[in-house]
Amino acid sequence: MQIPKSEMRTPKPQSVVSIQEVNKTFNSGGRERVSALQDINLEVGANEFVSLIGPSGCGKSTLLRLIADLLSPTSGRLLINGKPPYQARLDRDYGIVFQAATLYEWRSVSQNVQLPLEIMGFSARRRAERAQDMLKLVELEQFSEHYPWQLSGGMQQRVAIARALAFEPALLLMDEPFGALDEFTRERMNMELLQIWGKTGGTVIFVTHSISEAVFLSSRVVVMTPRPGRITRILDIELPRPRSFETRQDERFFASVTEVRESLREAYLG
Amino acid sequence: MTISQGTGSLSRRVAYYLPTALTALTVLLAWELIVRAFDIQQFLIPKPSSILSAFVAQQPILLGKVLTTLRGAVGGFVLGSSAGILVALITARWVILREAMLPFAIAANSVPIIAFSPIVFNWFGPSNPFSWMAIVAVIVFFPVMINTVRGLTLIDPRALELMRSYAASDFKILFALRIPNALPFLFSALRVATVLSMIGAVVADFFGVERATIGKYITQESASFRFENTWAAILLVSVIGILFYLLITLAERFIMPWHVSVRESGH
Amino acid sequence: MLESEMVAPAGSEFLQTARGAWARRGLPISLAVSLLAIALILTGAHFMLPLTEPALVESTPGQLALWVAGRNGLEQNSALGAARLALGGMSLLLAAIAGLDLYLLAQKGHLGSGALLWTIVGFDVLLLSVPAVSGSASYPLVLSGLTLALVALFLIAGRISRTLGMIVVISGLLLFWEVYIALGSATGNVLPLTDFPWKMPHWQDIAEQLLQPARRNGPTLLVSILAEAALFTWREAFVGFLSGSLLGFSLGILFAHSKLLERAVLPYAIASQTVPILAIAPLIVSALGAGWLPVAVISAYLTFFPVTINTLRGLLSPDPMALDLMQSYAAPRWAVLWKLRVPAALPYVFTALKVSATASVVGAIVGELPSSRSDGLAAAILRASGNYAAEPEKLWATILIASLLSILFFVAMSLLERWVMKRRPISE
User: Fold this and answer.
1) Which of A162, C72, C74, C364 is a plausible cystine mate for C237, CB 3.0–4.6 Å?
2) What does the alpha-carbon distance between residue B194 and residue C284 come to, in Å, rounded to a whole number?
């Protein structure tokens, strides 16, 4: 099911992320060409929580990296806050969280959170203050002088989130941040993420392969399928906010989950 | 992976080192007894007690001669390691150079010191302490350089992506990521370098003109068939090498308290 | 994949600017034209050399031709004529390559690493053939040609193969050496190491020495004498290498299976490496007599330790889960060893074997010293170093051959590694 192109030609003025006719092919070694993404069109508005979901190889992580200017598109146009990704990166318009916390083992928790602030030239006092504020936000302030190896996986990810938010970007990019955690921790982290987002605001683009996670967190779910990577469907999630553990028992939750699952199946069979 | 605390660990520590100590004691005792019992000609390998008494008796002479050698070893260690680190920083920047240096480094590493020493002494003078340092520096340079390059470049790609997402300059990436990442690699090379320095300095002794060196002492005592003195001198060199090694390990503990190998118990 | 993607944008940004455009097109073409010009001048100059000119007589082909003529009773002049042809021919070939470079550059806008490689190699060969005699323009021309070729390399980035990289480093060092000598004499011999000519000989002299008889008008060239000595030493080194590696490997297996033995014996294995081998070599020779045995023993002494340490690390490297799997099959210990641990240890073992290959050669040379085995490399080194002030090039030539031996042994190990581990990633 294609999004009508007429809607996509001019980016809406309030779009934080505008992706138009983007294609990405990799040619590893020159002989094989892998079409990772084909004809991607997507608009993300301010303060939206959008999930990208799909099976392995559908290009969701690639798309996130294109937005982050960690990769360049083969063709098409991306605009972040009306700027090309390169400029958005230089202006530090976004924060990114990976699947692995990627904390630097030689820095304490607080120093890890201060890393982007150091690079951006904040003074030592302001850095320390901001780091403490962020750690309070993720409820880890008493661990500020600990080292990463002393924390559990979930705690390390929270530090990574604190670090990503340290310089208050309006856009947060998350690449399967809770993928390495067990289900219970993951559900708890989902709740915490929503609470943090509730306090900070801003736009979130979240990559996952868990249908329930995508539905629980987002206002819109973008379903992608592989070979070639493309957007099959975009679903609006009509669940009220703030969401809670009870939301997972809601009928509408199940309905949305089923819708997403059906879209994924269709792409495989249809 | 807990940090040991309290006295319970003391007995554990002793138990850990016991086999090491026991082997030494057993071997030394057996050696001593066999030589005594069978009254074996103590030609090339005198019994431990003779070596020990020679070691004690010759202390002033040994220590006097070893200082020159030690000066060369330490000076060369510092020179070679600094050069190695500097070149590593440069080649880490330009990938072309790095790819090319590696096989060449291996080649240069295999030039026998004994071939190189006469040239060095010819260049700088046979009594010049700098000649020793140059020889040791050459031996130490390549392990340090190669390991540092490894540490500067073998980085988790995601840690690099993170830096890129912060639009960090290459300079910032070097200081905040590459250098801390390289420290463990550097120290493992430095530990090897300590031992190489002592060996290199003693080899240099053989080719120098300076008589007050431990290398010359070893040759002259061997030539006079006073082998217990030879072995006493060798023992001293070995002990100094090990102490130097332990010094660096201590420095490592101090500089990198966060590293895996340091934080695990029992070291 | 990602790393290379990330590196590309930064470089291409420079090339987008106008200045970048000039660097992209104009500069390489002018460099290629200069290279062609130099090669053509050299060709002309060489073909027109009078037979008595020192630039011809002192050149490497010249000296070699004179020796051949002397041995076979041929006329000196015809020999020199042949040498002149050789020099001219080499320059002509280089000019052809330079011409090809220019053509490719004009056609495609970039040069492959192959073309650059041959250009640089061509200049290197000339550097080793053309003598640095005063009044001859060829020598400075060759130096400038090599410099330009290396500069061209840096501007025309793109994929640089490992071989090209090695050639570049070697050429760079050769160039730096020669330029330093030139600078030395230009500044009145005040620069360090330039006060006496025998401290830093020209590389052409060293190459020439190799292609000269070891004794005046003697029957054999130095290079063949040295090659024989190298072979002689290598045989001893190989025995040492084989036994040392076997010992190291066995010790590694032993330590992997018994923590007790490891703690009891390994520290002494480590301590053994702190003893300067040169000190105990005479003792070993006295004990074992003056044959190849003590040499092999010393060689083994330097070989076993890296192999032990790396084998141990490699044997202990398998994932605990892989070990649990073996246990679930009720696999006996030897099966776990040969089917899991040893294959896992192979990359580590090969790293150690490569290091030990070079160490065994060093050990053999050290072992030969006290036993004064006159046919080996150690004796050759001693002879050459005794004569250093008079003929410094001989010592450099000897060191070169000795290093070459180690490198070849190292390369042999690398090839073995590649063959044994066909589908696995190769350690560095």
Assistant:
1) C364
2) 25
